[in-house]
Amino acid sequence: MRPSGTPRELEQRRLRAVRLLAEGFAPVEVARQIGVDRRSVRRWKAAARRGGEAAVAAKPAPGRPRRLTARHLARLRRMLMKGALAAGLPTDLWTCPRVSWLIQRQYGVHYHPAHVSRLLHGLGFSPQKPTRRALERDEERIRAWIEQDWPRVKKRRAPESGPRFPRRIRDAHGPPGAPLLERARTDPGTSAARPAPSKSLRHRRAVHPAYPRPDRSVLSALPERQHQFPAGDGFP
User: Fold this and answer.
1) pLDDT tens for each residue of 7-23
2) Which residues contact 145 (CB under 8 A, 6 or more apart)?
3) CA-CA 20 to 30 A from 25: which of 48, 58, 102, 129?
4) Exposed/middle/buried for 68, CB within 10 Å: 0-12, 13-18, 19+?
5) E strand or H helix at 67, and its extent?
6) Residue 25, CA distances (Å) to 20, 51, 223 in order
7) pLDDT category, 193, cuts 50, 70, 90?
8) Per residue in 57-83, pLDDT tens?
9) What residues contact 127, with CB distance under 8 A and at least 6 apart?
10) How far apart are CA 178 and CA 210, in angstroms?
11) d(C-alpha 54, C-alpha 192), whole Å
12) CB neighbours of 92 closer than 8 A, spacing ≥ 6?
């Protein structure tokens, strides 16, 4: 895997390793100082022994040469900064097809619009969404309204509401005619909150004296239920 860094930075690292080796440092120590593997240091050492420092210099990357020089790109950036209206376009908006047309007109070089986006990124430009504004927009009137009228008509803060009263609810486990209970208070500054009603039978009878109690005499007078099975279907 190629190490991170520009070709110039990688070349400086190799030259530093070769100079440290010439000073008498061991390959392991050079690798530790530079932050590379020791096998890379040994490979640079062998290359420098055969061809000197020129053997570890950066080599030009193969590929098609650029059709626009650095001078052309600097001039193109200045033209883009002036705006599309200055270039003779009907609106002040740069797009990739428009930039491709400008390059074709100025330098006679054709660039595909898909490649123009990479070219613009290299020049420091990034895609931007244009802001939509009405043609009738008046900036002076808008600023005057914000400074003079808005402080007068802006909504004031609503006054704080009065004290809240506890909501009364009915005990779901009490009889139909049981009195209403108060929900536990949560207003700040009030006394201790009342506990929620318990679900135990003893507590319900203490809160509701009219809560019906079961009549044990009626339960004892009920006849025992007898189960009758048809003949032949009894249990073994």
Assistant:
1) 888 889 999 999 999 99
2) none
3) 58
4) middle
5) none
6) 6, 20, 110
7) very low
8) 888 777 778 888 889 999 999 999 999
9) 117
10) 8
11) 88
12) 83, 84, 85
Q: Measured in Å, how far apart are the chain's first and last C-alpha atoms?
A: 85
* Amino acid in the structure at residue 32: R
Amino acid, res. 40? S
The three-state (H, E, C) secondary structure of 21-54, written as one string? HHCCCCHHHHHHHHCCCHHHHHHHHHHHHHHHHH
Q: Are 130 and 93 in contact (CB under 8 A)?
A: yes
Which is it for the CA torsion 30, 36, 38, 41, positive or negative? negative
CA–CA separation, 178 and 115 (whole Å): 83
| Better pLDDT: 140 or 193 | 140
User: Exposed (0-12), middle (13-18) or buried (19+): which is 60, by Cβ within 10 Å?
Assistant: exposed
Query: Whole-structure pTM over 0.90, yes or no?
Result: no
Per-residue pLDDT at 184: 47
Look at residues 6, 4, 31 and name the one whose alpha carbon lies nearest to residue 17. 31
